[in-house]
Specification:
The protein is α/β, with parallel strands linked by helices. The protein has six helices and 14 strands. Helices cover about 25% and strands about 35% of the residues. Helix 2 crosses helix 3.
Length: about 210
Amino acid sequence: MQPYFKVPSKQYSNVILRVFPGHFVTPNSHINEYMDITPMKCRLGEAQSVAKALSEIHYFSTPVDTIVCMDGMEMVGGFFAQELTRAGVISMNMHKTIYVLTPEYSQSGQMIFRSSIQKWIRGKNVLLLLATATTGKTVAQALETLKYYGATISGISAIFSVATKIAGLPVYSLFSKSDLPEYKTFSPEECPFCRAGEKVDAICNGYGFTPLS
């Protein structure tokens, strides 16, 4: 893999994205730049900075009872809940607090919630928090599942997102396509790297990447 380069947030100089150029395969597409979100999710200080920044760019016109964290965003989700509480975002549940949950996945890849935590989804105002959104397919599926469990969607927040809107809902992200003008995503059938016979550098998803060479 090629060395990464750093992209600081235009609004928050202490939030910095690491980007690896190359040929990468995600669950839904092929991409030419991989965003390494791992330090933002796993380092205490960076997770706090990301959560604070997200709380400032996401305007909440609806209450938030529950944050559902995807892509290993639990630490950011906890700080995010703290920042929203400080900002006075309303929670409509009886305990007047924000729950932070992580979905489970079936063997077929379907997102599920066990009976013991469905009470924090059904009839609640749920915010979906994720690391990245490229094609939007995974987010759309997650929203559909949350609605199946009876959630009202309060919003979508991400560190990086190509899409500005998914399923009719705005996506609030710290980094967008304008921050990475060279970023491109392709379907496997239309990937120019594959057509040129170029090797795949790594398999990646929201949790990280695995180099193939």
